């Protein structure tokens, strides 16, 4: 099964896919990139 990859840009308005009461409506503000330095270990 392949995961669906979705990319958002600042200014997009998004909601959760799950059917929840009081589902939040969110606005994308900025992109944050995080790089982890060091030895790569995968479980």
Summarize the structure.
Helix content is 0%, strand content 14%.
Please tell me about this protein's structure:
The protein has strands at 13-15, 25-27. With 43 residues, the chain is mainly β. The chain has a two-stranded antiparallel ribbon. The two termini are 20 Å apart. The model has no long low-confidence stretch (mean pLDDT 82).
Supply the key terms.
43 residues; mainly beta; 2 strands
Unreliable residue runs: none
Average of per-residue pLDDT values: 82
Number of strands: 2
Strand content: 5-15%
Q: What is the N-to-C order of secondary-structure elements (H for helix, E for strand)?
A: EE
Shape: extended
Class derived from helix and strand content: mainly beta
Number of separate helices: 0
Radius of gyration, taken over Cα atoms and rounded to an integer in Å: 15 Å
Record the SSE blueprint.
Blueprint: E1 13-15, E2 25-27
Antiparallel strand pairs: 1-2
């Amino acid at each position: 099964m392949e995961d669906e990859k979705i990319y958002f840009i600042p200014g997009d308005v998004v909601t959760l896919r799950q059917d929840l009461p009081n589902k939040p409506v969110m606005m994308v503000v900025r992109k944050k990139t995080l790089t982890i330095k060091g030895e790569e270990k995968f479980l």
